[in-house]
Protein backbone atom coordinates (compact mmCIF):
# COMPACT_ATOMS: atom_id res chain seq x y z
CA UNK A 1 0.00 0.00 0.00
CA UNK A 2 1.56 3.31 -1.00
CA UNK A 3 2.09 6.12 1.44
CA UNK A 4 -0.65 8.23 -0.18
CA UNK A 5 -3.25 5.53 0.39
CA UNK A 6 -2.28 5.30 4.06
CA UNK A 7 -2.80 9.06 4.42
CA UNK A 8 -6.23 8.76 2.74
CA UNK A 9 -7.20 5.95 5.14
CA UNK A 10 -6.09 8.07 8.10
CA UNK A 11 -8.10 11.04 6.80
CA UNK A 12 -11.20 8.82 6.39
CA UNK A 13 -10.80 7.57 9.95
CA UNK A 14 -10.43 11.08 11.37
CA UNK A 15 -13.40 12.33 9.33
CA UNK A 16 -15.70 9.55 10.55
CA UNK A 17 -14.53 9.98 14.16
CA UNK A 18 -15.12 13.75 14.02
CA UNK A 19 -18.53 13.30 12.38
CA UNK A 20 -19.49 10.79 15.04
CA UNK A 21 -18.25 12.92 17.92
CA UNK A 22 -19.59 16.27 16.75
CA UNK A 23 -22.88 15.40 15.12
CA UNK A 24 -24.19 11.93 15.87
CA UNK A 25 -23.13 12.00 19.52
CA UNK A 26 -24.90 15.28 20.23
CA UNK A 27 -28.08 14.36 18.38
CA UNK A 28 -28.21 10.98 20.12
CA UNK A 29 -27.82 12.64 23.52
CA UNK A 30 -30.57 15.16 22.76
CA UNK A 31 -32.95 12.43 21.62
CA UNK A 32 -32.20 10.36 24.72
CA UNK A 33 -32.87 13.37 26.95
CA UNK A 34 -36.22 14.02 25.23
CA UNK A 35 -37.17 10.36 25.55
CA UNK A 36 -36.25 10.42 29.23
CA UNK A 37 -38.55 13.39 29.84
CA UNK A 38 -41.45 11.50 28.25
CA UNK A 39 -40.58 8.38 30.25
CA UNK A 40 -40.40 10.40 33.46
CA UNK A 41 -43.82 11.94 32.82
CA UNK A 42 -45.24 8.42 32.45
CA UNK A 43 -43.56 7.11 35.62
CA UNK A 44 -40.81 5.22 33.79
CA UNK A 45 -37.11 5.81 33.45
CA UNK A 46 -36.06 5.10 37.06
CA UNK A 47 -34.97 1.51 36.40
CA UNK A 48 -31.63 0.46 34.96
CA UNK A 49 -31.96 -1.03 31.50
CA UNK A 50 -35.13 -1.68 29.57
CA UNK A 51 -35.23 -5.43 30.22
CA UNK A 52 -36.69 -4.94 33.69
CA UNK A 53 -39.92 -3.35 32.42
CA UNK A 54 -39.87 -3.88 28.66
CA UNK A 55 -43.65 -4.23 28.34
CA UNK A 56 -44.25 -0.77 29.82
CA UNK A 57 -41.81 0.76 27.35
CA UNK A 58 -43.44 -1.07 24.44
CA UNK A 59 -46.84 0.14 25.61
CA UNK A 60 -45.51 3.70 25.84
CA UNK A 61 -44.12 3.40 22.31
CA UNK A 62 -47.51 2.25 21.01
CA UNK A 63 -49.54 4.88 22.84
CA UNK A 64 -47.28 7.92 22.35
CA UNK A 65 -46.42 8.76 18.72
CA UNK A 66 -43.80 11.31 19.78
CA UNK A 67 -41.97 8.70 21.86
CA UNK A 68 -42.18 6.23 18.97
CA UNK A 69 -40.66 8.81 16.61
CA UNK A 70 -37.85 9.51 19.10
CA UNK A 71 -37.25 5.79 19.47
CA UNK A 72 -36.99 5.32 15.71
CA UNK A 73 -34.65 8.32 15.40
CA UNK A 74 -32.49 7.00 18.23
CA UNK A 75 -32.20 3.61 16.55
CA UNK A 76 -31.24 5.26 13.26
CA UNK A 77 -28.58 7.52 14.75
CA UNK A 78 -27.26 4.72 16.94
CA UNK A 79 -26.84 2.49 13.88
CA UNK A 80 -25.10 5.26 11.93
CA UNK A 81 -22.83 5.96 14.90
CA UNK A 82 -21.96 2.28 15.20
CA UNK A 83 -21.18 2.20 11.47
CA UNK A 84 -18.84 5.17 11.89
CA UNK A 85 -17.08 3.41 14.75
CA UNK A 86 -16.79 0.23 12.69
CA UNK A 87 -15.33 2.18 9.77
CA UNK A 88 -12.74 3.75 12.08
CA UNK A 89 -11.86 0.35 13.48
CA UNK A 90 -11.39 -1.10 9.99
CA UNK A 91 -9.30 1.88 8.84
CA UNK A 92 -7.09 1.63 11.90
CA UNK A 93 -6.72 -2.11 11.39
CA UNK A 94 -5.65 -1.65 7.77
CA UNK A 95 -3.18 1.04 8.79
CA UNK A 96 -1.71 -1.09 11.59
CA UNK A 97 -1.43 -4.08 9.27
CA UNK A 98 0.45 -1.97 6.73
CA UNK A 99 2.80 -0.65 9.41
CA UNK A 100 3.45 -4.13 10.80
CA UNK A 101 4.04 -5.58 7.34
CA UNK A 102 6.54 -2.84 6.48
CA UNK A 103 8.20 -2.48 9.87
CA UNK A 104 11.61 -3.41 8.51
CA UNK A 105 11.48 -0.51 6.01
CA UNK A 106 10.57 2.09 8.64
Question: Could you please describe the fold and organization of this structure?
Answer:
This protein is an all-alpha fold. Helices cover 81% and strands 0% of the residues. The protein contains three helices and no strands. It has helices at 3-41, 54-63, 65-101. Helix 1 packs antiparallel against helix 3 and helix 2 (54-63) crosses helix 3 (65-101).
Please report the distance between the alpha carbons of the first and last residues. 14 Å
What is the tally of helical segments? 3
Average pLDDT figure: 89
Q: What's the main sheet like? A: none
| Low-confidence segments | none
What gross morphology would you assign? elongated
Roughly how much helix do the residues carry, as a percent range? over 70%
Structural class: mainly alpha
Give the radius of gyration: 20 Å
Beta-strand proportion: under 5%
- What is the succession of H and E elements? HHH
The overall strand count is 0
Amino acid sequence: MPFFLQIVILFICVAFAALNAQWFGQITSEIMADMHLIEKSCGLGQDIGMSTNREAYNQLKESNPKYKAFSNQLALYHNVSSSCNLCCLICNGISLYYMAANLSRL
